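Two proteins, back to back. First:
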Amino acid sequence: MHVSSRPRALAGLVASTVLLPLEILLLGLWEQQRGASDWAEFAAEHDRIAGIVADLEAPTPRDGCPDFRLQFRRDGKTYGGPLAVVMSRGARDSAGTLVAVMDWRRWLPPVAIAGGGIAAGLSLLVLLAGAALSWLGRGSRDALVGGFSLMRRLLPAARAAQILAATAGFVAVVAFEAGMLLQSGHSGDGMKLLGIAAVAIGATLLAAGGALLGLRRALDAFEPDPLPILGRRITPAEAPGLWRLVEGLAERMGALKPEAVVVGLSDGFFVTAGPAVLEPCGTRRSGRILHLPLPHLALMRGDETAAIIVHELAHYAGGDTAYSQRFLPIYAGVARSLDVVAARKGHALGLLGPSVRLGRFVTERFHLAVRHWSRVREFAADAAGAGVTSPEAAARALLRSGALAPRIAETLVAAAEAPDAAPPDLVVAVLDRAVARGLDDPARHLDAEQAHPTDTHPLTRERVAALGEALGPDLRSAAGLAPPPHALGQLAAYFADPAGLCRAASADFLGAVHERDAAFRAHLEAKAAEVGTEERVLRANYRPRGLVLAVADGLFAVVALGIAVFGIPGILPREATVVLATALAIAVLMGGAGAFVLSRGEPVILILRPEGLAAPGLDRDDRLGRHRRPRPDREPERPRHARAPAAGRTLARAAAGPPRREARPQAPHRHPAASHAARIESAGLRRPDRHVPGGGASPVDPRRGHRARGRACLTNRERIRDRNARGRLVLPPRRPAVAAPGARVD
């Protein structure tokens, strides 16, 4: 959340979760006073009418003649004789009914007071408890786990009770006010207002029921999604040296050994203890998993690799084990349940909105504590790595991971842009590029991540300083030293068949790119099939504008006619003449404008055809980019065969861009080698509904990304009309995309 928006967000949260229920409470207090007063007033009126009825029902004269001196006045009419008795009895019965209604109304304000008070009190309790427990969690990790567990149990019950209490309070307020409408009898206005009140109460109850059902369903979604990993599981037989290294380091530091080791190309070093799914095979695994990137294993020195592995294994030692295995998945589950509730809140007339905002406030407070301990864990893991190897090796590993990242990213970008032309071994390609171009200066990546209290990793500069190492020229030159041409030979110390493993990992990466491209193509073809081949004509609708002008003309004409016939009382005739002339002038102007607008009808502005589009005033049809002019600020496009499809380019941008440091509790801990390395998320390769790292959106998802929306990516693009000397319609240049049936894409 942006800093400047936090006060506004907090104010909105307090207004929706505390002030609104307090308004219901205050309305209840006001209605309580009115209810007692109304009941006393109607009871007194009933007693008065009952006395009149008793007088009218006195014994009649002995001669049997009615006494017309007895009269009863009701609703402005006077009744005498026997009719007075009948009408007075009816008035007495009506007054008795109203007294019963007023007596019933007196029970509604306490419900409103209790509902508003409970909702506001729960909101204050959750706000204060969330802030206090998260603050305590920054001082102790056990307090963080215990406090969040308490809030996890409290939040669902509090949200359900809030909805029930607020609904009861609102219904009580509306029903109290609707009760006063009964005294108007069966009049038209009274019945309309009663109908509106009944609809409001029914809609509120229905929305509350839907909100509770949605809340109940969302509370079942506390299990986090499996973490997708693009990589291969390596057995001890396939990597005897690597397993010996990992197990030996775990024994030296007293950490739990990983249950599985996975190697890949696109992610960096990380560990995870939650459920995961290995791509592209789709194998699901759970337990302790250590992921190692093949390019880093080939291009980093042995002590640097050991320092990073120890850093990762440190999260399986001591209190980090329970924290990583139990707390983070639960934390992720709560965040997921909030997302599910937020997706449903639009169907509950906004009743879930305050509850969702309250839940997000609490998770954000704990998010700060979680990130605080994540930073503490990073420094502790760095110290563990330095203790097993050396502070110099740990600092050099931090710097070298940043220096390697551009070469790895460039290689994966090129492979994603043109997967058919990519080399079969991308690890060899990374080494060749690093030897030819050298590595980046590590100093350029010291501040690659902005300092922020919610970052998972501190700045590289801070971490090197915490290790007690100075960022001198010797350390930077050692970290940025280009690898020798025979650097791949050190993979033989880890794997039984390093060349075959590198080729297999490269094939997995390229296969994922092809799979994404195929899904993108299928999505475009499905969208294109929805368009149809019929011609569509777009017309301008000026009729509403003309009708508005015509109605305004009529109103001013009526005003002018009234002034001409009746004049304007209280002003001089000369002044009335000026007003009349002004009204007539406005009526004439609006009438003429309305007639002109209506006479235009519905002119054709654009004709859409499968092969192109046409517009009146243009000398020829546009054939979807055939007449495009090159833009001077854009470099010439490469031929189609040399460019990757849109999906591949999205993966490439993900690899080239800086990694996003988003809150991802269920995701594994990642070493800075992962944060500086080329990250091509495997999450989106098989599931097109997930975001692509680096800020882009999955092109396969029809809900995200401009390339995935619209009819073959054409009709939703903003068309720019450029009337040049030849009068052609010029579309902005765009990158090649998959050709849809019935459309030409240049």
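And the second protein:
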Amino acid sequence: MIRFSPRAAAFATVLVMTPAVAGCGINSIPTKEEAAKARWADVQSQYQRRSDLIPNLVQTVQGAAIQERTTLTAVVEARARATSVQVTPETLNDPQAFQRFQAAQGELSQALSRLLMVVENYPQLQSNQNFLALQSQLEGTENRIAVARRDYNEAVRDYNTSLRTFPTVIWAKTIHGGSQPMQLFSATEAAQTAPNVNFDALNPAAPGAAPGGVAPSAAPGSAPPAAPAQ
């Protein structure tokens, strides 16, 4: 009769049990966590792309002799706040940090929306090739932000569900005991206010004039503050 040492028997048991344990989803939680973090990196990339477009946008609007100092300043300040609030993959489970990040990005979306609504009253920008290029890039970036947020939310829901459902909840409470639910983007009013980048309806009746009901807040030729550096 063949006799096995206790060590060999233990090793054989591990070999037999490994496929069964793997089949119960022991690796599902870290796999889904990494997938959610990857989607978060996409979100950050698109928000950064939008932030990078803003200084050139502000300079282009200023260069067209548009006197909207207050509106331009609001965009610059909102951008500064948005870039100062960051959420890392390690803090995606921090509700307060995530809320601050979403609020700051939402404020920037609203500031951009107001700026782009105001400049519709200045037809001279319609022939500005740099502005038209920025219009196209901003529109594409806003679309990519929406897609990145959606993909991130889907990945996080999948991960969060694995922390609560059988059999992966067993591993969440034992082997992966440090795993915590991640935060989701909510459909706030600010988040839903994407900048309006359609300039087909420019008003040709008042070329170069300030928009009706909007009083310029600075003398002609005054420059808005420069956009903050990254």
